Structures are given as C-alpha cells and as structure tokens.
Amino acid sequence: MEARRFWLGCILLFCGVVMLFIALFLPPVGEIHSSVIAVFGEICAISGAALGLEAYTTYKMKKLINDYEEKRNLEEKEKKKENDIEWHENMD
What we know:
There is one protein chain. The chain has helices spanning 2-25, 34-91. By secondary structure, it is mainly alpha-helical. The chain has one domain (2-91). The protein is rod-shaped.
C-alpha cells in the first residue's frame, strides 16, 4: 500500500510538470495561464499528501510503539529489581 501511494504521488507530480510544459506551448506561447498554475498547486498538494502524510504517520506510530515498549521494559526491570530486593531481605 505504501509503494502504491509513493508511485501515485510521483505520477501526479510528473503529470503536473508535463501540464506546465504543455501550457508553455499553447497560445499565447511562453505564458502559463493562472488556472494551470492553480491546478499544478492542487496536484502538488495532493501528491504531497500522498507522499508526506504517509511518511509522517508511519514515523509517529513507530515512535509511539517504541516509547511504549521502552516504558514497559523499564517497568518490568524495576519490578524484577524490587522482587530481587524483597527476596534478599527475606533470606536474611
């Protein structure tokens, strides 16, 4: 799914650039109409959302999972340490 979004974003961006170059050669030659620039901006926003949002959410989810696992491991180590201390105290 991630690869599909990546390629979709790349294709959209490529289509936007092609559209800009085609607009250069339509009458009046050498001038890009403002509607073409507006559509290119929308295409960039959509492709950026397809590319960037996926990367951002994946990064945040991995960070959240890693933080949770580190906290859980730390709590387990503290409990084990407390149990070891209690065991040694009971042995005395």
